[in-house]
Design brief:
Length: 309
């Protein structure tokens, strides 16, 4: 069946060689994320719940002309097309970025075109980050998929025919019962954080207009949202190039090894990155995606098995 829903269109010419898949990869929650698809030619599909309603966004890079073709379906189409340049990093300012560390400078020089995305969707980022708290990536991505498959809305337009889904609305999230969260492999601590956030969704979206320090304080005022979760949200929803994932064992381990050849603590990570302000997250991204981390000497942490499947 072919979708008959009319699409809205926009053509945008970024001021740099923009590779949508590279920029948007931090928004993807595992290879089977129902909100994210990519095609062999670099086309990216995103399904989101915007303040105006559900939307599918198709992003096609036209490398010969340097343009990005944008096509959107659904009630949120106009909102998403307006937001799309920021989603692809247009509001990220790399002026003055030159890392103190030679390995980072060399890695950045190989591809200086990555930008921090700004989705403008705080609740979406917070739900995903909360699901990822203190669990393996495999378990978190399973929970995200199960949440979307059971409670998400079918994506508008052709993405729905590909099985893509949008996050439930804030009101829909608030109505999910505690036992239903358990069936999504999300325990009570994490689900309570998500439900509280959904009840405060309007206030959280207003953090997009606040200075980053104020946005951080507002996010962390939600019970269950700490330093790590706030940073993960700001990296994606706010486009905060300085938001470091403190509290993440793997990030500190990876960055410490890449820069010093040693595994370091979170406190040592703070000291190590102090000279990189206001680009600490940019440095984190460059290191964790382009440089080797510490070798593994033991098995990966196994997913917990006490939750319903």
């Amino acid at each position: 069946m072919t979708s008959t829903l009319l699409a809205r269109h926009r053509v945008w010419r970024p001021g740099w060689p923009c590779e949508p898949l590279d920029i948007l990869r931090p928004l993807r929650r595992g290879g089977a994320d129902p909100t994210f698809r990519s095609d062999r030619d670099g086309t990216v599909w995103r399904a989101s719940m915007t303040p105006a309603g559900p939307v599918t966004l198709r992003i096609v890079p036209r490398r010969h002309s340097g343009e990005i073709e944008l096509e959107a379906w659904g009630p949120g189409a106009d909102w998403m097309l307006e937001q799309a340049p920021d989603l692809l990093g247009a509001s990220d300012d790399i002026t003055g970025f030159e890392s103190s560390y030679p390995r980072v400078r060399r890695a950045w020089a190989l591809n200086p075109h990555w930008r921090v995305p700004r989705s403008g969707l705080v609740l979406e980022s917070l739900v995903a980050a909360a699901i990822e708290q203190k669990v393996t990536g495999k378990e978190a991505w399973f929970g995200w998929r199960r949440l979307l498959s059971r409670f998400g809305e079918l994506a508008p337009g052709p993405a729905g025919e590909r099985g893509m889904r949008c996050l439930p609305t804030a009101a829909g999230i608030a109505r999910i019962a505690s036992w239903q969260w358990l069936q999504c492999s999300v325990d009570g601590a994490r689900s309570r954080t998500i439900v509280r956030a959904s009840q405060l969704a309007g206030a959280l979206e207003r953090t997009l207009d606040q200075p980053m320090a104020e946005a951080d304080r507002a996010l962390r005022s939600v019970p269950g949202v700490g330093v790590w979760t706030s940073a993960e949200v700001r990296q994606r929803a706010h486009g905060d190039a300085d938001a470091v994932s403190f509290g993440d064992y793997h990030v500190a381990r990876h960055i410490g090894w890449a820069i010093t050849g040693q595994v370091i603590s979170d406190d040592e990570l703070r000291d190590l990155l102090e000279s990189e302000r206001p680009h600490r997250y940019r440095v984190q991204h460059v290191i964790t995606t382009r440089l080797e981390g510490a070798p593994r000497h033991g098995p990966r942490m196994a997913p917990r098995r006490h939750l319903p499947t």
